[in-house]
Write the structure tokens for this entry.
Amino acid sequence: MTMKRMKLKLKSTTYAILCLTMLTLPTLTGCKSPALTADERIALPDTYLQEGDSCIAQLSWRDFFPDEMLKAYIDTALANNPSLLQTLEHVSIARSQVRLGTGALLPDISLGIEAGIQRFGDYTMDGVGNSTTNTPDLDPEKHIPSPYRNLNIGIQFQWEADIWGKLTHKKRAAVSRWLKSVEAQKLARSLLISETAGLYYDLIGLDKQYDILGDAIKDVQAAYQLTSELMKEGEVSRLSVDQFLSTRMRLEAERLAVKQQIGETERAFALLLGKLPFEVKRTSYKALRRFTFPLQQGIPASLLAQRPDVRAAELELLASKSDVQAARKCFFPSLTLGGSAGFNAFDLSHWFSSPASAVYSLAAGLTAPIFRRNEIRTLWENAKSNQRIALLNYHQQALQAYQEVVNLLEATQLTEQRRELKRQECMVHRRSVDDANELFRTGFAGYLDVLTANERHVDCEIEQVELNIHFCKLNALLYRSLGGGEF
């Protein structure tokens, strides 16, 4: 066959393969770069509650939280928390997948060394063939020995040309999922910061409740002693004395329960920091009430893009779009280049003789799918379904994020108003306690009036503490819900 006829046959064969490939291709639109379109992006209001400007979502947690002790604990938690460290390892795994995707674009090169010995039987085809090959006119050094030795060393390579961009889209999908894991790490960090701040504020609140109950026990004890003296003088009955005694015992039991909560919260706080239980130093409740947090109102909804969960959902959507493009390109033929070069001989002395023992090969192959039992089409359909799922998940995450921020903004504003009302209420109850005690001493009020005033005052003080702690925790949650700021 002449060279011209061989070229014509190769061209006709290639054309036939391409025609068969096109028969298996579905009707598709053009390939687009992975980016969210206007239809895919969800439209949200420009502001949450009212016009204004704020940069909470861009603040570092060091600038957001005013307590220096809390900042030191957050630093420790970010460095030692086991769950966060596990998340960092997942990021490393995703980064390895990126390297794997990038490596798919490069040739596969390997070095091989082979040595073997084999003896062929005298009455076999190989044995007879080797004996007849060793003719007298052949150089004795080229005679095939028996047993036969085979020494081979060489480099092999294989490379799939990314002519359709299939491997590039796979790499883009891996990059998007790596960035998604980075966002997951940010989400874990913001959750850890918020949880650390929440437990820290809980400890401050429990300390204050413990002190409130202690002061209440002293007041009731004083009333108990007063009624005991009055009972000796016959002015009151034992009933009033027992009422004050039982109230004191109840308050002491509640104080012990708060003490237990303090211990449990401290141990949970230490676990969050990745440490054994230790004495947690914290600021006073009086200092906490003076803390101020950045303005919350009027935060643009566009800042939701900084939330790690929303950003992760968006990146998963981009990765799924790249998966669809890569699955689509599987319908096209793939071009593979390969070859090898090295030295091959059956005699050690001539192993590296050049060019006598030098060997090489070079080949190219064009492979097109014709019938793969619907495997490629199924993968493509699955990729499209996964893309639609990712789009719906992205929309759901964005809507949930917006709703969460709106709820927290409204809660912080209303809680601020409730704090002021509760403060005024506590002042009224404090005045009622003083009046009830004075009237009881002068005989114009009974012991039930004193008990009622004391109990309501203690309850109001505890409710005020819980409300103030709740306000601080709401701000920590709002900081997390806006993306956790800059780290």
Remarks:
- Residues 1-33 have pLDDT under 50 and may be disordered.
